[in-house]
Amino acid sequence: MVRETHSEAETEALAQALAETLRPGEVLALDGGLGAGKTAFTRGLALGLGYPGRVQSPTFTIVNEYLGGRLPLFHFDLYRLNAPEELPDLGWEDYLDRGGVCAVEWSEKGGGYLSPTRRITITRGSDDHSRRLEIEEVGPC
Protein backbone atom coordinates (compact mmCIF):
# COMPACT_ATOMS: atom_id res chain seq x y z
CA MET A 1 0.00 0.00 0.00
CA VAL A 2 1.33 3.43 -0.92
CA ARG A 3 -0.14 6.64 0.47
CA GLU A 4 0.84 10.28 0.30
CA THR A 5 0.18 12.59 3.20
CA HIS A 6 0.33 16.37 3.08
CA SER A 7 0.94 17.23 6.73
CA GLU A 8 2.30 15.76 9.93
CA ALA A 9 -1.29 15.41 11.16
CA GLU A 10 -2.19 13.31 8.09
CA THR A 11 0.85 11.09 8.66
CA GLU A 12 -0.24 10.56 12.26
CA ALA A 13 -3.82 9.81 11.16
CA LEU A 14 -2.62 7.17 8.69
CA ALA A 15 -0.59 5.49 11.43
CA GLN A 16 -3.52 5.74 13.82
CA ALA A 17 -5.70 3.82 11.37
CA LEU A 18 -2.97 1.21 10.84
CA ALA A 19 -2.66 0.74 14.62
CA GLU A 20 -6.21 -0.60 14.75
CA THR A 21 -5.05 -3.61 12.69
CA LEU A 22 -1.93 -4.43 14.72
CA ARG A 23 -1.61 -7.65 16.69
CA PRO A 24 0.60 -8.58 19.66
CA GLY A 25 4.16 -9.35 18.59
CA GLU A 26 4.23 -7.17 15.47
CA VAL A 27 7.54 -5.57 14.56
CA LEU A 28 7.35 -2.50 12.35
CA ALA A 29 10.54 -1.50 10.56
CA LEU A 30 10.39 2.27 10.04
CA ASP A 31 12.72 3.32 7.25
CA GLY A 32 13.44 6.87 6.17
CA GLY A 33 16.09 9.53 6.49
CA LEU A 34 16.47 12.16 9.18
CA GLY A 35 13.30 14.22 9.44
CA ALA A 36 11.29 11.88 7.24
CA GLY A 37 8.48 11.52 9.78
CA LYS A 38 9.22 8.26 11.58
CA THR A 39 8.48 9.70 15.01
CA ALA A 40 5.30 11.42 13.76
CA PHE A 41 4.21 8.04 12.41
CA THR A 42 4.92 6.46 15.80
CA ARG A 43 2.85 9.17 17.54
CA GLY A 44 -0.06 8.08 15.36
CA LEU A 45 0.53 4.44 16.26
CA ALA A 46 0.46 5.30 19.96
CA LEU A 47 -2.81 7.21 19.55
CA GLY A 48 -4.33 4.35 17.59
CA LEU A 49 -3.32 1.89 20.31
CA GLY A 50 -4.95 4.09 22.93
CA TYR A 51 -1.93 5.79 24.48
CA PRO A 52 -2.85 9.45 25.07
CA GLY A 53 0.49 10.73 26.38
CA ARG A 54 3.46 12.43 24.77
CA VAL A 55 5.54 10.47 22.26
CA GLN A 56 9.08 11.51 21.44
CA SER A 57 12.05 10.01 19.68
CA PRO A 58 14.13 7.64 21.80
CA THR A 59 17.36 8.74 20.10
CA PHE A 60 19.35 8.92 23.33
CA THR A 61 17.49 6.28 25.36
CA ILE A 62 17.22 3.82 22.42
CA VAL A 63 13.77 2.62 23.52
CA ASN A 64 10.67 4.29 24.95
CA GLU A 65 7.75 2.31 26.32
CA TYR A 66 4.16 3.49 25.89
CA LEU A 67 1.84 1.49 28.12
CA GLY A 68 -1.83 1.69 29.01
CA GLY A 69 -3.33 1.27 25.56
CA ARG A 70 -4.84 -1.74 23.80
CA LEU A 71 -1.29 -3.06 23.31
CA PRO A 72 2.04 -1.85 24.68
CA LEU A 73 4.13 0.09 22.16
CA PHE A 74 7.91 -0.16 22.29
CA HIS A 75 9.52 2.59 20.23
CA PHE A 76 13.14 1.84 19.31
CA ASP A 77 15.64 4.15 17.65
CA LEU A 78 18.70 2.17 16.58
CA TYR A 79 20.56 5.14 15.09
CA ARG A 80 23.21 5.03 17.82
CA LEU A 81 23.63 1.24 17.72
CA ASN A 82 27.23 0.43 16.80
CA ALA A 83 26.62 -3.15 15.72
CA PRO A 84 23.61 -5.48 15.38
CA GLU A 85 25.11 -7.69 18.10
CA GLU A 86 24.25 -4.97 20.64
CA LEU A 87 20.51 -5.50 20.16
CA PRO A 88 20.22 -8.59 22.40
CA ASP A 89 22.02 -6.67 25.17
CA LEU A 90 19.20 -4.09 25.06
CA GLY A 91 16.70 -6.82 25.95
CA TRP A 92 15.26 -7.12 22.42
CA GLU A 93 13.92 -10.65 23.02
CA ASP A 94 12.29 -9.52 26.28
CA TYR A 95 10.40 -6.79 24.44
CA LEU A 96 9.21 -9.30 21.84
CA ASP A 97 7.98 -11.61 24.62
CA ARG A 98 5.88 -8.86 26.24
CA GLY A 99 3.12 -9.09 23.62
CA GLY A 100 3.28 -5.55 22.37
CA VAL A 101 4.17 -3.81 19.14
CA CYS A 102 7.76 -2.81 18.39
CA ALA A 103 8.21 0.22 16.13
CA VAL A 104 11.87 0.38 15.11
CA GLU A 105 13.48 3.45 13.58
CA TRP A 106 16.75 2.84 11.69
CA SER A 107 15.82 -0.85 11.62
CA GLU A 108 18.58 -1.72 9.16
CA LYS A 109 21.07 -1.34 12.05
CA GLY A 110 19.44 -4.35 13.75
CA GLY A 111 20.69 -6.72 11.07
CA GLY A 112 19.44 -10.30 11.29
CA TYR A 113 18.09 -9.82 14.80
CA LEU A 114 15.00 -8.09 13.47
CA SER A 115 12.25 -10.01 11.75
CA PRO A 116 9.77 -7.29 10.84
CA THR A 117 6.18 -8.14 10.10
CA ARG A 118 5.69 -4.85 8.24
CA ARG A 119 8.05 -2.37 6.66
CA ILE A 120 7.05 1.29 6.51
CA THR A 121 9.22 3.37 4.21
CA ILE A 122 8.74 7.12 4.53
CA THR A 123 10.19 9.55 2.01
CA ARG A 124 9.69 13.21 1.39
CA GLY A 125 6.96 14.12 -1.07
CA SER A 126 6.59 17.00 -3.48
CA ASP A 127 6.99 19.69 -0.79
CA ASP A 128 8.35 20.05 2.77
CA HIS A 129 5.10 18.85 4.36
CA SER A 130 4.26 15.94 2.05
CA ARG A 131 5.36 12.38 2.71
CA ARG A 132 5.13 9.21 0.64
CA LEU A 133 4.52 6.15 2.81
CA GLU A 134 4.91 2.63 1.49
CA ILE A 135 3.53 0.04 3.89
CA GLU A 136 4.21 -3.59 3.12
CA GLU A 137 3.74 -6.84 4.98
CA VAL A 138 7.04 -8.68 4.98
CA GLY A 139 6.68 -11.48 7.50
CA PRO A 140 4.29 -13.40 9.70
CA CYS A 141 3.33 -12.18 13.12
- Ends distance: 18 Å
Percentage of residues in helical conformation: 10-25%
Segments where pLDDT lies below 50 for 5+ residues?
Answer: none
**Tally of domains:** 1
User: What is Rg?
Assistant: 14 Å
Strand content: 25-35%
Form type: globular
Please give the CATH architecture: 3-Layer(aba) Sandwich
Task: Lay out the secondary structure.
Elements: E1 2-5, H1 8-19, E2 27-31, H2 38-48, E3 63-66, E4 73-77, H3 92-97, E5 101-105, E6 118-124, E7 131-137
Parallel strand pairs: 2-5, 2-6, 4-5
Antiparallel strand pairs: 1-7, 3-4, 6-7
Helix pairs in contact: 1-2
Structure description:
The protein is an alpha/beta fold and 141 residues long. The chain has a single domain (2-137), classed as Rossmann fold. The chain is built from three helices and seven strands; from the N terminus they run βαβαββαβββ. The chain has a seven-stranded mixed β-sheet. Helix 1 (8-19) packs across helix 2 (38-48). The radius of gyration is 14 Å and the shape is globular. It starts with a strand and ends with a strand.
